[in-house]
Write a structure and sequence with these properties.
Mean pLDDT: 83
CATH topology: Immunoglobulin-like
Number of domains: 1
Largest sheet: 5 strands, mixed
CATH superfamily: Immunoglobulins
Helix content: 10-25%
Distance between the termini: 80 Å
Order of helices and strands: HEEEEEEEEH
Number of strands: 8
Low-confidence stretches: 5-16
Radius of gyration: 27 Å
Strand order of the largest sheet: 2-8-7-4-5
Length: 203
């Protein structure tokens, strides 16, 4: 009797082992918009960046940089643009766009140390006159060549710096010590609003 019970137990165990028919399937991670990390931004976005023409002979190029985190599809790079006066009224939602940063290879959300750096040489942009301006670093997976804006309006992030363009060698014309930021323009035009206008005002 005991021998028969052991045989029945062996049959039950072998039957239960057949319930696992396949290995679990793992889905590929979904691509996320690139996120610029404010805490890693350089210069410090909490301070006004003073661009003194008298100093440009010594340091004629400024760099705006920040780390970026994103989950990227295979073959999808992260690109950067630097806009001067992003939001200014006019035919474009910026006064100047700079595209000199090298794209980043695809990465995963846990990758650290991925950094976008866009240089600005003030002497090359005479339209940025003495006064108050902004510099906006933007990251996206793809920018439209015609508009210089992100192709996907949901696939970007940005960091903005306040700029004071001045000339300490000409204090009467372009003072560097009178930063009244309340007098700066409050610009509201963006890539999103420009795209809406192009589509006939539809959101």
């Amino acid at each position: 009797m005991a021998r028969a019970s052991l045989g029945l137990f062996a049959v039950v165990m072998s039957t239960s082992a057949c319930l696992v028919t396949s290995m679990p399937q793992h889905e590929e991670p979904t691509q996320t918009p690139p996120q610029l990390i404010l805490a890693t931004a350089d210069p410090d976005p909490r301070r006004v960046v003073v661009v003194d023409s008298a100093d440009l002979k010594i340091k004629n190029t400024l760099h705006f940089a920040a780390d970026v985190m994103s989950q990227d599809d295979p073959g999808s790079t992260v690109e950067f643009r630097l806009y001067l006066d992003y939001g200014v009224p006019g035919p474009d939602p910026f006064r100047v766009v700079i595209d000199r940063a090298a794209p980043l290879d695809p990465g995963v959300i846990t990758d650290t140390g991925r950094r976008g750096v866009e240089p600005w040489t003030p002497d090359s942009t005479p339209q940025i006159l003495p006064g108050c301006h902004t510099a906006t670093l933007m990251a996206s997976h793809e920018f439209d060549r015609a508009t210089a804006c992100p192709k996907d309006p949901d696939d970007y992030s940005l960091i903005t710096w306040q700029i004071l363009r001045c000339d300490s060698s000409k204090p009467d014309e372009a003072p560097c010590d009178q930063m009244v930021l309340d007098e700066c323009l409050t610009w509201t035009r963006t890539c999103a609003s420009a795209a809406a206008e192009a589509d006939g005002g539809l959101p």
